[in-house]
Amino acid sequence: MRGGSYLFDMPSVQLNTDVALGVAIPARNARGRIARLTGVVDAVLSSHNYPPVIERLMAEALVLTALFGSLLKEAEGQVTLQAQTENGIVDLMVCDYLRGELRGYIRHDPERLAEAGPNPSLFALFGKGYLAITFDHPVMNERYQGIVPLEGDSLAQAAQNFFAQSEQIPSLVRLAVDKRDGQWVAGGLLFQHLPEGEEGRDRLHTRLDHPDWPHVAVLAGSVKAEELTDPALPLDDLLWRLFHEEDEVRTLNAVQLTRGCRCDPGYVRSVIARFPPDEREAMVGEDGLIRVDCEFCSSSFSMSLNEFSVD
Ligand SMILES: [Zn+2]
To answer: From the CA of 103, how far away is ligand 1's center (Å)?
Structure first.
């Protein structure tokens, strides 16, 4: 038994997969989030019919969204991650998080993807792309959006640039995706240096050169891809591996993650109702119905024109 205090709360949820776990290292003014997804990825992918390259990208984007979501200060907060691209194989990628629920979709060009081979670069996928990350806190009536170019080798690097450029917080992001026994596993971690150990977004006195940060970054950065994607390794055990020489490591709340879509017929109808009558008429298909598909979960909603009053 080593010295030091380890305040690992008794978890109320399992810490192997489809979960995000918070961690604080008070003496180093650092906080982190670590997440792993299996069933959530399967559930999201089951609504789509993506080739393996796009499935892998979706898995990676979902775990990144889970990490961002677990940073939210408010239970009703929402994070939306959207990649806007120019001349990339991927035309649009959207993932979002609300109350532990994740969903996402990717629009891409299958022909160009096939030409690009099994391992296209980030640039091939997104072209001159941008990653927009939006934090919504409806109760506090706050919205914050940051946009960074999709540069570098990976989504993880773009996310790191987001924190460096938009928030000026020294951060480290690692993401890993693997297919094990036919099932996608996505794992990731995010560590940040906080001013004076504050667990929050107020950081007037962040010092970019604080000596504690390189130490935390080296330990967190030593995580191996196969550790992030091993569902047999609970996340608190993985944190122990990385930080067991620290005096105090506190795990925070764990958030169980699920796949959830918030599309509902009433909302879809209200959107259609806002169009002028002539535009609504133009939406009617051969079967006499207006049909709207949810891009996230592929649910199809149909309604007839006379459901909309003409007043
Ligand atoms: Zn839906």
So the answer is: 8
Question: CATH code at 252?
Answer: 3.55.30.10
How many other CB atoms are found less than 10 A from the CB of residue 36?
Answer: 31
**Largest CA-CA distance found in the chain, in angstroms, rounded:** 76
What is the predicted pLDDT for the residue at 3?
40
Cα of 304 vs centre of ligand 1, distance in Å, is 20
What's the 296 CA to ligand 1 centre distance in angstroms?
A: 5
Q: Determine the Cα–Cα distance for residues 99 and 256; give it in Å rounded to an integer.
A: 9
Ligand 1 centroid–CA 147 distance in Å is 25
Range of the domain at 191: 5-259
Q: How far apart are alpha carbons 197 and 203 in whole angstroms? A: 9
Does 123 lie in the same domain as 241? yes
CA 163 to ligand 1 center in whole angstroms: 30
CA of 262 to the centre of ligand 1 (A): 6
pTM: 0.89
Residue 51: predicted pLDDT? 96
Q: Which residues of the chain have pLDDT under 70?
A: 1-12, 195-210, 309-311
Sequence-distant (6+) residues with CB within 8 A of 32 are: 22, 23, 24, 25, 189, 190, 191, 192, 220, 239
